[in-house]
User: What shape does this take?
Amino acid sequence: MVNKDSLFKILSKLANDNKNSVNLDSRLIEDLGFDSLLMVNLIMEIENEFDIILSDSDYNFENFRTPLDILNLIENHE
Assistant: This one.
């Protein structure tokens, strides 16, 4: 099982969210202000933190709308 707190920490850091308002239903673009550059940084952070390698098909940002989407993706790679 993936530690969601680790993911929330990454998301908060990248989004400069000092209030720690990230939750499973936060929308990456609308709520946290992610753009394409932050999404690329997020992928790199996820790969490093969770020791996984995402395939090119995983890089479809349409798959990354909320932290819950990301957790599901990570769990499918474990």
Notes: The chain has a mean pLDDT of 87. The radius of gyration is 11 Å. Residues 36-50 form the longest helix (15 residues). The chain has three helices and no strands.
